[in-house]
């Protein structure tokens, strides 16, 4: 949008005959007649956009002999005043060997707001643009403002521009964890792994803590119940010893008994 909402302040002088109950409407009419549709030091004010906000002052002009009263009026308005680097959408109205003429219209009144010249060979602040050869009348395009000029009470703003560069395509961020980790590796970062490993570590630590927190073994109680210090039944231990020692001797006797054959 070439128009922008701004808050402005202007001084309006009323005659004593205009100081009635509807003096605010008179002030707004006076501002619209003076500013709307023409260029001022604010820029080009859009027609029908002025809305009075406040009237302050109301001082009688001492150097006037007819009792005129001056008000400081604050009002809202839509103003077109493009700066260098702004990008606007314009429609090509004519072409020739020198360049292209594009116009920005008011979408409501269809009045011309900006007339932009795009030079084929380039001027100060621009470069030669071969894409202008393919531009046709009636085509819409994005134009970057390089400079602008207007005089008081002009009905439109003259500007110089060039075709705006196409914006880079938006980069789509990956949605899956694996794709996000791969992108972080490509960018030189370290991917963040899932919390599954951390949960396993927590389980292991819990089990270790529970093992460490177990009650110590009472050796006296084990001895009273027939167990040794290692918690093994003494009777079972003696049976194991007999099986290990005595069993080997029995086998030797059997071998000796058959040695005579």
What would your notes on this structure say?
- This protein has 261 residues and is α+β, with helices and mostly antiparallel strands.
- The chain folds into four domains: 77 residues, Dna Ligase, domain 1; 77 residues, OB fold (Dihydrolipoamide Acetyltransferase, E2P), CATH 2.40.50; 37 residues, no CATH class; 35 residues, no CATH class.
- Helix content is 27%, strand content 30%.
- The protein contains five helices and ten strands; from the N terminus they run βαβββββββββαααα.
- Strands 1, 2, 3, 4 and 5 form a five-stranded antiparallel β-sheet that branches. It has a five-stranded mixed beta barrel with strand order 6-7-8-10-9.
- The N and C termini lie far apart (121 Å).
Query: What gross morphology would you assign?
Result: elongated
CATH superfamily name of the largest domain?
A: RNA polymerase Rpb7-like, N-terminal domain
Distance between the termini: 121 Å
Query: Treating each run of at least 4 consecutive H or I residues as one helix, how many helices?
Result: 5
Mean pLDDT: 75
**Using only CA atoms, what is the Rg?**
48 Å
Q: List segments where confidence is low: pLDDT < 50 over at least 5 consecutive residues.
A: 193-214, 229-234, 236-261
Helix content: 25-40%
Query: At the first level of CATH, what is the class of the largest domain?
Result: Alpha Beta
Q: How many distinct folded domains? A: 4
Largest sheet: 5 strands, antiparallel
Along the chain, the helix and strand elements come as: EHEEEEEEEEEHHHH
Question: Strand content of the residues, in percent?
Answer: 25-35%
Q: What's the architecture of the largest domain in CATH terms? A: 2-Layer Sandwich
CATH topology of the largest domain: Dna Ligase, domain 1
> In terms of structural class, how would the helical and strand content be classed?
alpha+beta
The count of β-strands is: 10
């Amino acid at each position: 949008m070439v128009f922008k909402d701004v808050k402005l302040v202007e001084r309006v002088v009323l005659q004593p005959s205009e100081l009635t109950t509807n003096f605010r409407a008179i002030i707004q009419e006076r501002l619209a007649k003076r500013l709307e549709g023409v260029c001022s030091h604010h820029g080009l004010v859009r027609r029908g956009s002025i809305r009075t906000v406040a009237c302050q002052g109301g001082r009688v002009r001492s150097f006037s002999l007819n009792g005129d009263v001056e008000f400081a009026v604050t009002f809202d308005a839509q103003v077109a005043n493009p700066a260098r680097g702004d990008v606007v959408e314009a429609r090509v109205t004519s072409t020739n060997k020198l360049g292209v003429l594009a116009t920005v219209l008011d979408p409501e009144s269809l009045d011309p707001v900006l007339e932009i010249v795009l030079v084929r060979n380039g001027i100060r602040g621009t470069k030669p643009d071969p894409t202008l050869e393919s531009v046709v009348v009636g085509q819409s395009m994005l134009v970057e403002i390089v400079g602008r000029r207007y005089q008081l009470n002009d009905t439109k703003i003259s500007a110089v521009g060039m075709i705006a560069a196409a914006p880079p395509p938006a980069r789509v961020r990956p949605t899956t964890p694996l794709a996000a980790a791969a992108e972080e590796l490509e960018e030189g970062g370290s991917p963040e792994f899932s919390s599954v490993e951390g949960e396993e570590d927590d389980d292991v630590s819990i089990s270790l803590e529970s093992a460490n927190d177990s009650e110590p073994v009472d050796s006296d109680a084990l001895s009273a119940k027939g167990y040794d210090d290692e918690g093994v039944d003494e009777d079972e231990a003696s049976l194991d010893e007999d099986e290990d020692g005595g069993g080997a001797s029995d086998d030797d006797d059997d071998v000796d008994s058959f040695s005579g054959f």
